[in-house]
Amino acid sequence: MSHSPLARFSAEVRALTLDNGLAVFTLQDPEADVVSVQTWIGAGSAAEEPDQEGAAHLLEHLLFRGTAAVPDGELDRRMEAMGASINAWTSTDATCFTVTAPADALDEVLWLEADRFAGSNPSQEVFAAEHEVVLNERRAAVESDPESQAEEAFLTLCFGDSPYGRPILGRTPQLAALREGELRRFLLRWYHPQNAAVVIVGAFDPDALQATLQRTWGAWTPRGAAPTAPGWGYAPRRRQNVALPVASRRLMAGWPLAAWGSHEHQAAWLAMQLLVGSGSAPITRRFILEEALAFDVFADAEGSVGPGVAMVGFTPRPGVSLRALERAWADELQRFVASGPTPDAVDEAIARALVAEAAQLGHSSHVAHLIGEGWRMGGDPRALFAWFESLPTLSISALREVARPWAAEAPWRLSVRPLSGGRA
């Protein structure tokens, strides 16, 4: 049995289901002076239908705009008065609402959070006002940021118009066209107890908690089993050149990635760490330190509920062609597949990941996030703890095999050039 901090935290997670079907996961820390409460909805932007683009993120905003029992503005005022911090975020696969508060404020936090989910019914005026807010957010975060535009272009290149290819904020024309009726349909379809989980981490009285939960969250009306999200798919293989108001050229390349939690996904994540994740990693060392081919190298193999994309990107130095970057990448990948990482390199990469994760276990909000993400991504509140704990079981042959396709030409390649200049 493992005695690591991750294993210990995982073992202490408790689960219960309220009468209305709401899943609740708790982890008690009697020594803490705060408590984190996170409400996870099992739907993000990938759950949107074509005429609902932007609804998930807009609805996140509207959940802050009051109910019949707690008027608009009162939620923030009461949270601030008790010394609590409150936030939310939307991803492709989930929407999460977070509160960190003094431990003695837990009962009030649970009542306020339960009320805004059970009682959310935004007026037309509130919808219109918040609709304009998210349109302005889109303009500021994407339309004024060439880097974000490049990232969106890359996702569309990989997934086309399927749900994972659409931006979380929504594209401006589709977001502007979003109607209140479609947003309400999204709310009724996805925001209900059977498609949600509440995570509580910190100091609380476990004997009193269940009654408090039933009294507060138990009022949320169930609507049956969670629905199935719209289908998705990869786009055909494609190479694309775009011009954007960026300062430097950029190359982004992607390959299919297995769904989160699978053995293949885990191996892909670790292989990317071995290739790019430190100053001594072969890609980083060659591209940045030894041959000065690029200003930076970035990679991602985080995964999603559905299959995703393993991607790598480079900002080449002046005089270095994108083709030269691709040849150097292929050369290093062929070497990785042929002779593989050393056992010491694998051990070091795993140790870095586990130490980095263990260092954050002192933050109740981070632990709550691990539990909630495990529920959403792996169907189990302990899934993410187990994911990290099982990294040492990956074999070098599995790492070589998962990286083998990356040595070949990427099915999706996006080159970005500054608007003023030459061909990418």
Describe this structure in words.
- By secondary structure, this protein is α+β, with helices and mostly antiparallel strands.
- It is 44% helix and 18% strand.
- It is built from 16 helices and eleven strands.
- The protein has helices at 5-11, 55-62, 74-81, 106-118, 124-143, 146-159, 172-177, 180-190, 206-216, 263-276, 282-290, 322-339, 343-358, 364-378, 383-389, 396-403; strands at residues 14-17, 23-28, 34-41, 85-90, 95-102, 196-202, 238-244, 250-257, 294-300, 308-316, 412-418.
- The strands form two sheets. A six-stranded mixed β-sheet has the order 1-2-6-3-5-4, with helices on both faces. Strands 7-11-8-10-9 form a five-stranded mixed β-sheet, sandwiched between helices.
- A hairpin with a 5-residue loop joins β1 (14-17) and β2 (23-28).
- α12 (322-339) packs antiparallel against α16 (396-403).
- The protein starts with a helix and ends in a 6-residue tail after the last strand.
Radius of gyration, whole Å: 23 Å
Task: Give the CA-based shape.
Answer: globular
* Number of helices in the DSSP assignment: 16
What's the count of strands?
A: 11
Spans where pLDDT lies below 50 across 5 or more residues: none
Structural class: alpha+beta
| Average of the residue pLDDT scores | 94
Widest beta sheet: strand line-up = 1-2-6-3-5-4
